[in-house]
Amino acid sequence: MDKLCIVTTGGTIDKIYFDDKSDYQIGEPQIGHILEELGVGFRYSVIPIIRKDSLHISAQDRELIRATIAAQDARYVLVTHGTDSMVETAKVLATIADKTIVLTGALNPARFRGSDAEFNIGTAVGAVQSLPPGVYIAMNGRIWDPAKVRKNVEANRFEAL
After folding, report:
1. Superfamily in which the 4-160 domain is placed by CATH
2. Which of 11, 16, 34, 146 could form a disulfide with 90 if both were Cys (CB 3.0 to 4.6 A apart)?
3. What is the DSSP code (8-state) at residue 13?
4. CB atoms < 10 A from the CB of 63, how many?
5. Where does residue 77 rank: exposed (0-12), middle (13-18), buried (19+ CB within 10 A)?
6. By three-state DSSP, how is residue 108 classified?
7. Which helix (H) or strand (E) holds 79?
């Protein structure tokens, strides 16, 4: 892998909890801090595009994400994204040729102890380096085809259709 291009869109992975307001807001992207702390052996760049809960990502936002990724020289792209509409964004990105694109996120904020963020990022980094060009979702320790997966909101996990 020459260099990993990371595109961030917000989502739970980057949420900050404000106790006095009992409110969550999307903070700065956490993936760069996580990779730095882990001392990864590859070069990467982080491109923050939007900071939204994925339920608020619009068709225009998805087009911005698609156009940004398509414009990058990088062959390997990791996208951090909210889990609720990750599948929809992955389907839009499927129109991009000759890149391996892996979307990942977290069911609990990266800042929380016990978050699945680091595990999902690690799974996504391994996947983006080893899979052929295409679009994939890395969640719950598995690599998913976006056309064959859904988020089970009640069980708070991804599962096959």
Report:
1. L-asparaginase, N-terminal domain (3.40.50.1170)
2. 146
3. G
4. 11
5. buried
6. coil
7. strand 76-80
Q: Is 39 helix (H, G, I), strand (E, B) or coil?
A: coil
Which amino acid belongs to residue 13? Answer: I
Encoded tokens for 69: 């990724």
3-class SS shares of the chain: helix, strand, coil, % to 5 = 30, 30, 35
Going by C-alpha positions, the residue among 6, 48, 58 that lies closest to residue 26 is 48
Residue 156 zone, left/alpha/beta (φ > 0; ψ -120 to 50; rest):
left
The residue count for the chain: 161
* H or E stretch at 77: strand 76-80
pLDDT tens digits, residue range 46-83? 999 999 999 999 999 999 999 999 999 999 999 999 99
Residue 160 in tokens: 């096959």
Question: Cα(85)–Cα(75) distance, rounded to whole angstroms?
Answer: 24
Q: pLDDT tens for residues 76-112? A: 999 999 999 999 999 999 999 999 999 999 999 998 8
| Residue closest to 93 by CA, chosen among 135, 141, 123, 45 | 135
